[in-house]
Structures are given as C-alpha cells and as structure tokens.
Amino acid sequence: MADYRRRLATVGLIAGAALLAAMAVLPAGRAHAATVVVREADKTEKAPERRAFVMTDTQGRMFTDQDMLGSFALIYFGYTSCPDVCPTSLQTVAMALEELGDDADRLKAIFVTVDPERDTPDVMRQYISMFDERIIGLTGPKPFIDSMVAAYNVKYEIGEIDPERPKDYLVDHSASIAFVGPDGKLITRFGYGMTSEQIAERIREIISKTTVN
C-alpha cells in the first residue's frame, strides 16, 4: 500500500508539471484551452443493443467489443498529453480498482486515446504504467477510434494547431467514465469529479446484484 501511495503521489507531481508545461507553450489568452467537454452521468441515455468496435491494445493485439463480454468495464476516452483532466481521471480509476479489492477482478478498466497521432502503443504503455498496469490502453487508426467514440456517444475535438509547435495541441473531450455491463450495454456514466470511493461503492453495489453466466 505504501508503494501504491508513493506511485499516486508521483503521478500527481507529473500531472502538475504537465499542466504548467502546457500553459507555458500556450499563446496569451489560451489558458482556458485545457477545458474539456464534461459529460455528467446520464441515466436517461438509451444504450444501443450492440456497441461494436475494433481497436489495438498496447501490445499490438486486436481488441474488440467481443473481448469485453462477460466482464464489467470502465471505459475512459482521453489522451496522454492531456495536462489535467486525464491524469486526474486515470488516477481515480486506479484508486477505484485498488479500493474494489477482489471485486476488481470482475471488470476491465480501459483507456481509449482520442489522439492516435501522438499516442502510439509504446507511449500509451509507458503512460498507463504510472497509474495501474491493469488498465488496458487502446488505440488505432482515426476511423476506428471515431467508430468507438460514436459507439459510446462521447465527443472530442482537436484544438487549434500552431504551425510552429505542431505537436503541442490540446484536445477537448468528454470527461465522464462509461460503466458497461457484461452484456456490453451501458449501465451508467461516472461524471468527472466523482471520487474513487463513490465510484467503487457504486460498482460494488451493481455487481453484487448481477450474476454473470
């Protein structure tokens, strides 16, 4: 547990440094460009019968919607160069997995990049290792990512690109975490700002009432 807390403290320092770095490269007046599109939990959303997708994990293996069947899943869309919201959200996911204990074995935690230009499998693998290596990183060609984005009804938009710093752009994106059942259907969304304790408590409540065949 001490090692885990030290790792989280390190992640917090890295996230803070990344935020300062991002603000340093932004032109005057763009300090608010890091704001993301925040989607709170939406219990009225009607989930489609099937959310099909084909992606690639950080080991270069194909990962599809069929690989999720039979397990609960936490799915977060973001990118590794995100200065604030993504590291905070992935830290929350990692802490929720820790708090779930053995119940975490019943779910898959998935991080999907919306920035395939910069987020190669190697970059994502190193990034995820700062949080929890149980998290599955997914990337792929932009059309494949857009298909998964549409399947889970999230949004993202590439920010303005400075020709002098073409790799320093930001990406606005949905910040909620989708919670999906063993049948592949959306159960709910955890809004940005929910604590790991709140998320773990809600997950435990749901899975305790669910029998997986």
UniProtKB/TrEMBL annotation:
Query: What protein name applies here?
Result: Thioredoxin domain-containing protein
Q: Which family does it belong to?
A: Belongs to the SCO1/2 family.
Q: Which UniProt keywords apply?
A: Copper, Disulfide bond, Metal-binding, Signal
Judging by the UniProt lineage, the source's domain of life is Bacteria
Q: What's the source species for this entry?
A: Rhodobium orientis
Q: Which CDD domains match?
A: SCO
Q: Does the keyword Ion transport apply?
A: no
Signal sequence segment:
1-33
